[in-house]
Amino acid sequence: MTDLHSDRILILDFGSQYTQLIARRVRELGVYCEILPWDADPAKVGAFGAKGVILSGGPESVTEAGSPRAPEIVWSLGVPVLGICYGLQTMTAQLGGTVEVGTTREFGYAEIRARGHSALLRDIQDRANAEGHGLLDVWMSHGDRVTQLPPGFKVIASTADVPIAGIADEERRYYGLQFHPEVTHTTQGRAVYSRFVHDICGCGQAWTAANVIEDAVERVRAQVGERKVLLGLSGGVDSSVVAALLHRAIGDQLTCVFVDHGLLRLHEGDQVMQALGENLGVRIVRVNAAPRFLGALAGVDDPEAKRKIIGKLFIEVFEAEAQKLEDVAFLAQGTIYPDVIESAGAATGKAHVIKSHHNVGGLPTHMKLKLVEPLRELFKDEVRRIGTELGLPKTLVHRHPFPGPGLGVRILGAVTQQAADTLRHADAIFIEELRRAGWYEKTSQAFAVFLPVKSVGVTGDGRRYAPVIALRAVETVDFMTARWAHLPYELLDVCSRRIVNEVSGVSRVVYDISGKPPATIEWE
Ligand code: XMP
Question: Among 103, 107, 236, 498, which has the minimal tally of Cβ within 10 Å of its Cβ?
Fold first, then answer.
């Protein structure tokens, strides 16, 4: 079988918010890559076996003493190097050129002119000017600029304001770009990365969903042998894809435990059972623990206390089920690559993204289970692609994230069965209408919240004094910051009317127009 890891690119991270995007672009081009921090052990950088190195952007200034530098070993690997923004600047500084603090910051759209017929940009253009020079629409975000080329380099791109917006030493195959080809605003960005990884570094395109599955299947089989594996299935994308993948690899050696805590979305449990259990034949133990959870939550209104109760009980229920299974040797988890990068970042003090909260936390240590983490190398979009390839329905694979404590943190204050039923119903209407209007894909997370305040409503001849439902929809990339989605009034109108008419016990519907910050995405 093709070795999908042999053609590999190393990305050295200088702290740019776009570093993971670079990695995703490279992967989309069918090439395996990993991200290491700029100060990674040089021995590790050397041993990585990269066919090319990309130096990311970063928030610092190379003009400042002690600012980050690429490990010197990068220049002796004999492979092509591409520096992006800060990466270009540190390359310049390290190889004998000059970088100066700019008088103005250049941020946003820019038109660059490709020059000097470089191997990197040749024939890549959005249009040409009257003299036949290629012009590209790109995205810039920088303050410092290169003012003097390092020896051996030529200029390959410039803008009206920045004479040196791209550099190349074709002999050593070192390239630097001041703009960000990884963002979609740079329309030819994909072509630029393809040129670098395929043509300049000579990487093939082995990294495809089908190959990734085949490789993961083989690795899981080799790791697990004839032994048994346990998986906590939450219904979320990651654990569902792990289930489908492990089922493909080891069939009935996998048992999933799906704890239904009664705070799931409408029909969520049945959908999971159908998609994975009935359609794919995955062995799933479904535990209907709703009464236990609601009992434990009775009268508790503090959000953190609710989270603790749900988390603790979840583990208890999961463990009790796990104990009933015999000879389990492995515990499977849906850890994905951003979690891995983040833990590495946290260890070195360079944290990246928000920690994704896991339902299944400190698990049966006394069972001495070894971990199986078949998604450890994958980004979320790759997890979705292989999920689809494995036969999971699009609605499951592209589902918005859902917090572990579920509706427990979307019912403000004390959780009751009635509030959960009301909220579930209102939420389902909201999501159905979003999907119908084509807005589900445009939003990153959307849901209803149950507000235990009472407001007056009039239905027919009667007045009622009932709870309020708030709708929330946000657009975000990393869930650290978010913009409230500007949903069309017509859509909000349909949702509001349907919810008040179809869900008993709701007097009015409001829409949350708070961004994050200062608000959080969830209400609790
Ligand atoms: P906030 O509300 O902090 O949410 O802006 C950011 C993201 O985290 C999710 N979230 C949780 N996920 N357990 C989870 O598994 C939790 O307790 C929890 N609280 C928030 C939230 O849904 C959003 O995607």
Answer: 103
